[in-house]
Design brief:
Blueprint lengths: L13 H14 L42 E3 L11 E3 L6 E4 L8 E6 L13 E2 L1 E4 L11 E9 L17 E8 L8 E6 L2 E7 L13 E7 L6 E9 L7 E6 L2 E7 L9 E9 L6 E11 L2 H4 L5
Antiparallel strand pairs: 1-16, 2-6, 3-4, 4-16, 5-15, 6-15, 7-12, 7-16, 8-9, 8-15, 9-10, 10-11, 12-13, 13-14
């Protein structure tokens, strides 16, 4: 999965690598300035991977919505709500708290050597997959989604290396095929966070292929919630669209293919990245799908 994100090594000279890095940086889209929600007693993550954030007296507010077609706050286990774990061991996913608006969230942690998992190759993975379904992510379906993600202090930003392409994926709508880029991804790079779209009549393998679109949204900030809202029409044709908001500010307004021809997609809460030599943790909370923005928006704070 995400085959063209796999790490690569090259025998080119260092001088040529420096030139290529400069070209790539010049082509990187400008970041959108977004105010990230500040940490609070009810949403500050622990500085240590595997340790539940919060503690006695942490917020226990109710679930954020009752009108959504799908809503998950992970009240009991990481595999609540139909999610399936893709990881080296069950302890790579654990319930932590507090969540974005309720008492619980799910933390995904990779350890060095967590490779060759569900098509990851040499990349390390601890993902939760919501299997393909007729209910979502199919040709012609219009949907609203929301989810919140936190990068705790235990999160390792992919490091810049001129000979190795380091990267991370923390959320995606993955196509049902076996090769190529996911249809939508929240990607963590040494240069910051980006949103990627891929779709159309042929599978997209890299940024230079037709059907690829990207938006840069800024550098990683630790121990704060990133609240995403998406409005999407799934289509392999030109009538598709994908709009994204981060903390109430629109950061993407894309028109074009959002699926590959003949395929559907499915949701993944991810901690998937090139091997970085350290444990890496990501926290996910409040996954919601609805027919209108009112179904998925955060309650009044």
């Amino acid at each position: 999965m995400h085959g063209s994100l796999a790490a690569f090594r090259t025998s080119w000279t260092l001088g040529l690598a420096v030139v290529l890095a400069a070209i790539l940086e010049a082509c990187t889209p400008s970041a959108v300035s977004v105010q990230i929600n500040p940490p609070s007693v009810a949403s500050t993550a622990s500085s240590s991977p595997g340790t539940p954030p919060g503690g006695p007296g942490a917020s226990t507010s109710a679930s954020s919505t009752t009108t959504a077609g799908f809503s998950c706050d992970f009240p009991n286990t990481p595999t609540d709500c139909g999610f399936a774990l893709q990881a080296a061991a069950t302890d790579r996913a654990m319930i932590v708290g507090p969540g974005r608006v309720g008492p619980t969230a799910v933390q995904l942690t990779t350890e060095p050597g967590d490779i060759n998992l569900f098509g990851s190759g040499t990349a390390e993975r601890a993902d939760l997959e919501l299997p393909p379904s007729a209910a979502y992510c199919n040709q012609g379906q219009e949907e609203w989604w929301a989810h919140s993600v936190m990068f705790p202090s235990g999160y390792v930003i992919p490091v810049l290396d001129l000979l190795v392409s380091n990267w991370g994926v923390v959320f995606d709508f993955h196509h049902t095929g076996s090769t190529g880029q996911a249809n939508f991804q929240v990607v963590s790079l040494p240069t910051g966070l980006e949103l990627w779209i891929a779709g159309g009549p042929t599978v997209v393998n890299g940024p230079t292929d037709p059907g690829f679109y990207r938006v840069r949204i800024g550098s990683v900030q630790f121990d704060v919630w990133y609240d995403f809202v998406y409005h999407v029409l799934w289509s392999s044709g030109s009538d598709g669209y994908f709009q994204a908001w981060l903390n109430n500010q629109q950061v993407m307004n894309y028109s074009g293919p959002t699926l590959y021809a003949g395929q559907s997609c499915y949701l993944k809460l991810a901690n998937y990245h090139s091997p970085l030599g350290l444990p890496v943790s990501v926290i996910h909370s409040r996954v919601v799908r609805g027919a209108a923005r009112a179904d998925v928006q955060l309650p009044a704070q």
